[in-house]
Give the backbone structure.
Amino acid sequence: MALKCAVCNAPIIGNVEGVCTQCGKSGKLVECGSGHKVCGECLDKVAYESIRKVCMESTSSNPYEVFMQIIDDGKLRIHDFKHHVAVGSALLAAHRNAGTMIDLGLMLDEMRKRGSKIPPGACGLMGNCGAAVSVGTFISILTNTTPLSEDTWGDVNLATAQCLIQQALIGGPRCCKRNSFVALKVGARIASEKFGSEMDIPDDPVCQMHEQNPDCIKERCPYYWS
């Protein structure tokens, strides 16, 4: 799915220098086919709003479907640190839609607050993929875990670790979509085992976005199709 304009949803056609249509700041911008020019900060704001809106409105109990609804809204780049928020948010929405009574809006806001602090490129620079951490954050939010928790502290860290192991076994270079798919499946399984969540855990998805990724590992990826 191509990146869409934060103003009118037209496809982004390139990068330019100029004044942001949204906030008036000057600098590096992206431009859409309708001529709107938007800065990175405004793009990020709209993307986070899109994640929340999609998750609040989704009725799917399938975390893959919720995640792809976020992607189809067109506010996330093929590689984008906002996946660090999108993965956990999709799991929260699917968990709610599977019949669990949670304050989804409050939890989505907390997911954004925490997930947005995970730096870009953490997978390769720190050995800690943000999509995996998003699953740990999902478990932490559901269990109200803090650094001082005893019973659930291990569950939160194990959730992240299990994602990282599965991602690492596939190898690099990074792909935010591939790592998100891995993390979503692990997160759904843990939610089922720990909380009895009835969210759907379907067969692995088939990636429709590999042509947008020049670094795609193709046949080494379990989600690739040619």
